[in-house]
Amino acid sequence: MVAAIAVAALAAVALAARAPVDGPAPRASSPEAIELTIYGAASLKGALETARMAYEVATPGTTLLLATDSSAALATQIEQGAPADVFLSADATNPRKLVDAGLADGAPVPFAGNQLTIIVPAVNPAGIVSPADVVRPGVQIIAAGDAVPITGYAELVIDNLAREAADAPGFVAAYAANIVSREDNVKAVVAKIELGEGDAAFVYATDALASRRVSTVPVPDRVNVTAIYEGVVLRTSGHSVAAHAFLDWFAGPAGTAILSDFGFRRPS
Fold this sequence. Notes:
The chain is of the alpha/beta class. The protein has 2 domains: 34-113 and 228-261, Periplasmic binding protein-like II (D-Maltodextrin-Binding Protein, domain 2, 3-Layer(aba) Sandwich); 114-226, Periplasmic binding protein-like II (D-Maltodextrin-Binding Protein, domain 2), CATH 3.40.190. The protein has 10 helices and 9 strands. It has helices at residues 2-18, 45-58, 71-79, 93-100, 149-164, 168-178, 186-194, 205-210, 240-251, 253-261; strands at residues 34-41, 62-69, 86-89, 109-121, 141-144, 179-183, 201-204, 214-217, 226-233. Strands 1, 2, 3, 4, 7, 8 and 9 form a 7-stranded mixed β-sheet that branches. Strands 5-6 form a two-stranded parallel sheet. Strand 1, helix 2 and strand 2 form a beta-alpha-beta unit. Helix 3 (71-79) runs parallel beside helix 4 and helix 5 runs antiparallel to helix 6. The relative contact order is 0.20.
């Protein structure tokens, strides 16, 4: 009997020695939950949605909130105090404007390149077969607003085409006269052409690739331009380290592979 009591007492001491003094064993710490708001150019919409899923799997605890629109519109929102962490622009002008205004945390990071093409409705009612056709009388051109990056790139292509024309000033004026509407961003431009509400539009090659309801008229390399996309982390970000980590990832091999799948090029 005494032996049994002694054995039981020793067992109780052993159990007590293994148990923590203040309660159950602590659980392994989980990553801090972080939400990053990513402002991106409208032409990045598909690539960013894919990147979001890949990054959230690769970085447990981080959630990406995406907002896409014209780069110019997004930059204006940031200037007015919109709470974003990362800005991904379809040009270099808007990110550098934020740097100059003291609103960026670090220098802009180039992450993609794009080129222009002409899209027409699938049935091509105006019979557009070459870039020079966009200045024919009566052709209805859908364009974006003056501040939208695609507009500046399209004007560079028109200038290049005009240099090959006999009447360069007339060529530029004829193109401007054919513009029948200006949209908020390049996605809205594509939508107008898909609906047959215009005869032609200059868009990014990636936007043409993403639509099954338009046909394309290639822009020759000799007159085409390359759009360089740049991103910045914003100084007001509450998660600066995480924001820089995402931008580095998106500009690195993993992000580049996703962008390539959507037709983007490496920045040059």
